[in-house]
Amino acid sequence: MIKQILGRLPKKTGKAGDARDAATSNGNEPSNSYSVARSVEPGGNKRAGNGEHLPPAGSASNPAMNGAVVYHSNEPLPAFKDVPVSEKQNLFVRKATLCCAVYDFADPTKNLKEKEMKRQTLMELVDYVTSANGKFSEIIMLEISKMVAINLFRSSNPTPRENKAIEGVDMEEEEPLMDPAWSHLQIVYEVFLRFVASQETDAKLAKRYIDHSFILKLLDLFDSEDPRERDYLKTILHRIYGKFMVHRPFIRKAINNIFYRFIFETEKHNGIAELLEILGSIINGFALPLKEEHKLFLLRALIPLHKPKCVAMYHQQLSYCITQFVEKDCKLADTVIRGLLKYWPITNSSKEVMFLGELEEVLEATQLAEFQRCMVPLFRQIASSMNSSHFQVAERALFLWNNDHIENLIKQNYKKFDDDELKHEESSSKREALWKRLEEMGGESSPSGIPNGKSSQ
C-alpha cells in the first residue's frame, strides 16, 4: 500500500531522493530525520542538511528538504473533501510540505499571500488530524514531525533584556515578549497537540520520530519568553509523558538537568513554573513505596530550587510538588523541613513570608514522629520570624497557631517540653548545690586566713 502511495508522489531525480524513497518504502526511516531539516546561518540564509543553500521560502523553485519535494508556496492545493479517500494521504504530505516554508514575521508586509495560504493549510491539517478515523501511517507521522520541527525548533533571537539586567532592572516586572509569528506557531502547536493526543497515533511507531533528540529540542523551547508558547509546551509534554511510557525516565532526567543548570549556573529560565506544574501531576501519580530515584530528585533538585532569588516566579508550583511528596510519604517531612531551614531567607522579607506559607502546608501533612525529629531547629526559626522587624513576617509566623493540626502537634509535646525543662532545672540545682558544697569543703580544709592550706614560715 505504501509503495502505491509513494508511486503517486512527484519524485525528484537524484541519488538522495532515490535513497529517501527506498528508506521510506521498506520502513527503515531514521528516527531523527527531522533534525537535519534546515538550519539558519547568521545571515539568515537557509541551508539544507547537506550544506546546500536554499532560496527564500516562496521562491519559484525550492530544492528538496529532508529528501521530500518542497512545493511552491503559492501553488493551490485542493481541499481534503474534494479528493477521494485513496488520495487523502498523498494530499496531506503535499500540504504538510507546503507548511514547511518559514516566513519572516518581523516585517508584516512581506509574503502576505503566502503567509495566509500557509495559515489556511495549517488549519486544514488540524481538521484532518482531529477527524482521523484510522491509525496514522508512518509517512503521516514523519511529515508531521518534520513540519513541527522546521517550524518550532528555531534559534531564539537575542533580546535587549540581557543589557537591562546589568542596569539592575527587575526582570519580574518586565512585560513578556510575544512572538510575532504566533499566528502560525499556534496552529502548528495545535496540529502537534492533537496528533499526540489522538487515539489514532500508535506510540510504538511514533516513538521513532518523537525520540530523545526531539524531546530535548522541545524542552529547550520552555525557555521561551512567550507565555502562550510555554502553555502549549506544558500540555504537549504532559501528553507525551502519558502516551510514550518508554520516554518517561528520559523526560524526568532531562528536566532534572534543566533544574540543575538553573540552580547552580544560570538562575535564568522562563519555563521553571511550567515544568514544575507538569512534575506536580507526575508526582501525584507516583506508586508507593517511592523509588529511591524519586527521593533523590526531591533532595537534589526540588529542595535546592528554594535557593534562587527569583523563586517567587515558580514558588506556588514548587510548593505543590514538595507537599505532594510529603503526602505520599510522611517520613519525608523531616527531610523537607530541614531543607527549608537550610535555604531560609535572611534579608528577603517577601521570600520569608512565602517560606512560612509553604512550611504550614508541609506541617499539615507531618505526623508526630517526624515533627519531633525537627521541632527544635524548626521552632528556633519560627521564634526568630515572630521577632522579625517586618510586620508581615511576624504576623505570618503567628498565623501558624491558627492551624488546628499544628496546634495539636504543639500540644502533644507540651508535657515533653515541661519534663525537659524540669529535668534541666533539677540538673542546674544539683550542679549549683555541688559547687556550693565543694566551696564549703575547701574553706573548712584550709587554716584560717591562709590560702591553699600553706602555713607561714
From TrEMBL:
The keyword Cell wall biogenesis/degradation does not apply. It comes from Triticum turgidum subsp. durum (Durum wheat). Residues 1-67 are annotated as: Disordered. This is Serine/threonine protein phosphatase 2A regulatory subunit. Belongs to the phosphatase 2A regulatory subunit B56 family. PANTHER family: SERINE/THREONINE PROTEIN PHOSPHATASE 2A PP2A REGULATORY SUBUNIT B, SERINE_THREONINE PROTEIN PHOSPHATASE 2A REGULATORY SUBUNIT. It comes from the Eukaryota. Pfam families: B56 (PF01603). The B regulatory subunit might modulate substrate selectivity and catalytic activity, and also might direct the localization of the catalytic enzyme to a particular subcellular compartment. It is found in: Cytoplasm. Gene3D superfamilies: Leucine-rich Repeat Variant. One of its GO terms (cellular component) is protein phosphatase type 2A complex. GO terms for biological process: signal transduction. Keywords: Cytoplasm. GO terms for molecular function: protein phosphatase regulator activity. The keyword Amino-acid biosynthesis does not apply. Residues 23-36 have a biased composition (Polar residues).
